[in-house]
Amino acid sequence: NKEKEELSENEKIINELNSVVVPTRPSSLGEVVLPDYEGMEIEISSIKEISEEEITEYINKQLEKMPSEYEKTERTITRDGDKVNIDFIGKVNGEAFSGGTAKGQELILGSGKYIEGFEEQIVGQNIGEEFEIAVRFPNEYEGELAGKEARFSVKINSIEEEKAKAVSYTHLRAHETVLDLVCRLLLEKKNN
């Protein structure tokens, strides 16, 4: 129970610290007037030690928030999560339909941006080869396509894979909160 109380206390401190934003540009503060701090005493006994696990968890959460970056790959077969550049022509009952054709369209496989089944059938396909996929538009789809089966002729022009994410000093400075600052200082202390 004492561990849970300490963890709960740490969570409270983390939440409180995380709600305070440290501006990264002094000009955004306007004029700063410091109080008379000489002789001021500060009690720090209420600050709990932050564990390495808590710091790691926090950093991992920050990584999840970062936008993905992609780079060309030598692979010729697509995988879930790849960013592909595709050309496609969609037809219903053998007739092309409005909005069903695109050239140079970028799509992240597994993002769920297209109708169900579209992206999944692109996974495992070869770059440069033309192939067909079949999907059914949802019954809730607006317009004439609702509930209809469509066939798409698809060609993959290029494949990019997601780059590994890493927290950089520049990223931390751009999004720094008090908790970020505490974590950075603790990491610096640990490394020295």
Topology summary:
Layout: H1 2-18, H2 52-65, E1 70-72, E2 83-92, E3 95-108, H3 118-122, E4 130-136, E5 149-162, H4 169-174, H5 178-191
Antiparallel strand pairs: 1-5, 2-3, 2-5, 4-5
* Total strands: 5
Tell me the strand percentage band. Answer: 25-35%
Radius of gyration: 26 Å
Q: Percentage of helical residues?
A: 25-40%
Structure explained in plain terms:
It is built from 5 helices and 5 strands, in the order ααβββαββαα. 29% of the residues lie in helices and 25% in strands. Strands 1, 2, 3, 4 and 5 form a 5-stranded antiparallel β-sheet that branches. The protein has helices at residues 2-18, 52-65, 118-122, 169-174, 178-191, and strands at residues 70-72, 83-92, 95-108, 130-136, 149-162. It is an alpha+beta fold. A hairpin with a 2-residue loop joins strand 2 and strand 3 (95-108).
Which features does this protein show?
5-stranded antiparallel beta sheet; 192 residues; alpha+beta
In short:
It contains 5 helices and 5 strands. The protein has helices spanning 2-18, 52-65, 118-122, 169-174, 178-191, and strands at residues 70-72, 83-92, 95-108, 130-136, 149-162. Strands 1, 2, 3, 4 and 5 form a 5-stranded antiparallel sheet that branches.
